[in-house]
Structures are given as structure tokens and as C-alpha cells.
Amino acid sequence: MPDIERVQARLSNIESVAPILGALRTISLGSWQIALRRRGEVQHYGERLLALLPPVLAQMRSQKRRGYRKKAPPSPEAASRVVLVIGSERGLCGRYNTVIASFVARHVAQLQAQGAAVEVHVLGSRARRALTQQGIAVERGYELSATALPPFSLAESLTREHLAHRERVVDVAYSEYHNAVHSQPRVRRWLPPQLPPLQVAQSAEVIVETADPRSLYERILGQWAAVSLYGLLLEAAASEHAARFRLMESASQNADRLTEELLQELQSARRQAITQEMQELAAGAGLLG
């Protein structure tokens, strides 16, 4: 016969954990949706920044600044290579950090096989731990907020830091968000900025009045690089919270199933206990042979 006290203790434990799982699931869902909405706003802002570049380039041409040269990106062989990994600061997101760490290990091994000297920088203590377990030496680590989405100031500070080293080629490794159930690790070139094709033409909507259009061009380019990195941070955050939501949803469903099974087991144990007690009373009264 099942131990009633043991079943009641297990049922009590599950009932105390269930509200926590529900709260974590709700928080993850909210953070996930906010990250996606903010990423859309950031993408729109990045498009508006790019729209400013053609008039600035036209102004540079109209002033016949022949001394302007678009700096060619450093060659991967000669440049300092940095892989910036976006992970998580919190756990309870399944194999999120482990998958990214395995992907980065393969990417770094491929770069090293080509003769490149690679530094690995990582955002998030959980991802740093996963990279260490993969045998990857982390040159620099950054903490992420454990209670909020990454701020834009983080993207700005990282952009200033890496743009100060113009010889660097920086790849960003992150979890690319596809939908509610699917994301995958990806590496994307961040610096030098990879601009889409721009048509150098004067725009009627933008009037550029400056004696130094090149400085304005570099300012816009730096801002666009920061916005691009912030978009990747938000996309990685959406993937992380989606993974955490799926895990909490599965845990909640398992808790509900286990609660139902324990309730049935408890009812069965009580019926058996009542039946045994009635048999003992009947035997004591001489009603049973």
C-alpha cells in the first residue's frame, strides 16, 4: 500500500513549486515579447540612420573633398580577430548557453586553422562558464543584467571600445531568433561595419549643412554600428527568453501531470486504508471467519 504521508509530502512540494514555475513562465513571456518589439523599433531606427548617409556622401562630393578615402576593411589575415559571444546571465534556459559555446568552439577552431590569432570576449557569466567547459580561453567577460533586457548604453560602450582599435575584425556569435520554437547559433561580421549598397544622391527630405561632412559620416557610421549590435543583443535576449518560456511551460505541464497522478495515488491509498480498517473492525467484531 502506498505511504500516504510520503504521497502527501510530494504533493505539497509540487503545489509549492507550481506558482514559481507559473511566475517564471509569465516573466519570460513578457521579456520575450518586449525584446521582439524593441528589436523592431531598433531596426527601424537603423534604417533611418542609413537614409542619412546618401545626402552626406553627396555633400562630400559636392564640396570636392577628393582627399576622402573610404577606408578598406582590414584583411582577416592581418587584422586582430575578436569573437564577441552573446550568452545569458541567468540559468533555467535549457541548453541555450551550451549550444552557443559548442558553436563558438567550432568557429574559433576554424579561424585558428586558418592561422588567425583569435580573442574571445563574452557577454554573460553563464556563457562564459560554458565556454570554459569547452576549453575556450575567454580574454574578456562582461556581465549582463539578471533582471532586465540589455541597455543601449552597453552597445554604445562596446562600440566605442572596439572602434578605437580600427585594425580589429569583430564577429558576433549569438542565438538567431526564428520563431517561438526555433533558434540557432549564428556568427555575423559586426566590425568593420558591413553597410548595404548606398546610392549617392541628394535627398529632398534631408538637408546637410556642415563644413565637415566626413566627421558627420563617421558619427552616423558609429551610431549605426552601435544600433546594429543592440539589435543583436535584443535578438539574443528574445531567443533566451523564448527558450526559458518553453522550459517553464514544459515544467508546468509536468507538474500538473504529476499532481494529478499523486492525487489519484493518494485517493487510492486512502480507499485502501479505509477498506483495511473496516476489515479489521469486522474481524474484531467476529463478523469475518
Structure description:
- The protein is of the alpha/beta class and 289 residues long.
- The protein has a domain of 155 residues: 3-Layer(aba) Sandwich (Pyruvate Kinase, Chain: A, domain 1).
- The protein is built from 5 helices and 5 strands.
- Helix 1 runs antiparallel to helix 5 and helix 2 packs across helix 3.
- The mean pLDDT is 88.
Q: Name the poorly predicted regions.
A: none
The tally of strands reads 5
Helical fraction: 55-70%
β-strand percent reads 5-15%
**Main sheet attributes: strand count, strand direction, barrel closure:** 5 strands, mixed
The 3D shape can be described as elongated
Distance between the termini: 24 Å
Order of helices and strands: HEHEHEHEEH
Instruction: Give the CATH architecture of the domain at 68-195 and 218-244.
Output: 3-Layer(aba) Sandwich
What is the CATH first-level class name of the domain at 68-195 and 218-244? Alpha Beta
| CATH 4th-level superfamily of the domain at 68-195 and 218-244 | ATP synthase, F1 complex, gamma subunit
Overall mean pLDDT stands at 88
Instruction: Look at the helices and sheets and give the structural class.
Output: alpha/beta
Q: Cα-atom Rg, whole angstroms?
A: 29 Å
Number of helices: 5
* Strands side by side in the biggest sheet: 3-2-1-4-5
Predict the CATH topology of the domain at 68-195 and 218-244: Pyruvate Kinase, Chain: A, domain 1
